Amino acid sequence: MTHPSTSSSRRWALKACAAGAVLACSVGPALASNWPDKPVTLVVPYSAGGPTDVVARLLAVPMGQSLGQSVLVENTVGAGGTIAPTRVAKSKNDGYTILIHHMGMATAPALYKKLPYDPLKDFEYIGQVLDVPMTLLSRKDFPANNFQELQDYVKKNQDKVSLANAGIGAVSQLCGMLFMHQLGVKLTTIPYKGAGPAMNDLMGGQVDLLCDQTTQTVPVIKDGKRAKVFGVTTSERLSSLPDIPTLNEQGLKGFDVKVWHGMYAPKGTPNEVITKINQALNVALKDATVKARIADLSSDLVSPDKATPEGLRKHLEAEVARWGKVIRETGVTAE
C-alpha cells in the first residue's frame, strides 16, 4: 500500500516533469527532506596516501557522523586528476557522489585542450576546505645561499638550472611556472611521477630546485641537512617556519601559491542537499582531531566565510582567471 503523502509527492513530480521542471524530475521533492538515507561517496582525484586523500579521510569521519551516514572515500586517479571530476560531473545529482579537489580544478581548463567538464558550469559548490602552503627548495650543495643569490644565479645560468616537479598539472609544476614567470627565466623542467620521487632526487643532488607542499617539505627543512630553503610561497610567514621569509617579501611581489582544496557536487544537486553537506563540512572543520592533524601538516583550515558555496565559487572564478593567464603566457599544456 502506498503512503498518501508519497503518492501525492509522486503525482506532483510527474506534473512538474510535464511542465519541464528538470530538477524536480531528476531528484524528486521528497529527496532533500529524507537525504541522506544511504552512504555518501567522496571522490578523490589522486591516490591513497597523498595530501588530498589524507584530507578527505580526515573529513569523512566527522562528516559522516554529522550526516548520520558513512562518507566513503573513493580514489579515482588518472589523467592529471581530471578523471575524478569527470566522473562526478556525470553522476546523478542527488548528493550521494561528491568531489574533493585542489587547485587543479582552476588550472585544468588552461592545461587541457579537450577537458570533458567545465569547472565553472558543471558543478554545485559546497565550500573551501583548507590551504596547504608551499616552499622553494634546492639541493644542499646548490651555489646560492639566500634568495638574492638564487635570483642572480638563476638569471645568469638559466640554461644550466633544473627545476623538478611532481608531473604535468601538479601544483609543484604550477608553482615552478609562476616562479619562472616572475623572474623572467626559462629553466629545464623535469617532471616526475609524484612529489616523492622529485624530493628524493633533490635531496640526492640529481636536480637543482623544487617547489613543493609543506606536508612534505617541513621535515626536510627542519632537518637542515638534506636541502636548502629559499622561502615560503604564501603572502605571510608560516607559524611552523617563522624564520623562513616569504618569496613576496624578498622581491617576488604578489607571489602567493597555496594548494587550496574545495568540495563539489554535480550540477543540479538540490540546494537543501548542498546545505546539509555544507553543514557537515563545517562541523568537520571544527572537529578537534581534524584541526590537530591539519596543524601537524603545517596547513590551514579555511575561515567560515570561505567554507561556503559562495566562498568557493568566488575563489574558483578568480583562480581560473589567474592561472589561465600564467599558463597561456608560459605556453605549457598537458596535451
Automatic annotation (TrEMBL):
Is Signal set as a keyword in this record?
yes
The UniProt entry, under CDD domains, shows: PBP2_BugD_Asp
Signal peptide interval: 1-32
- Superkingdom of origin: Bacteria
Q: Does the keyword Secreted apply?
A: no
The record, for InterPro entries, names:
BUG (IPR005064), Bug_dom1 (IPR042100), TAT_signal (IPR006311)
Keywords from the UniProt entry = Signal
Q: Which family does it belong to?
A: Belongs to the UPF0065 (bug) family.
Q: What is this protein called?
A: ABC transporter substrate-binding protein
Organism per entry: Comamonas aquatica DA1877
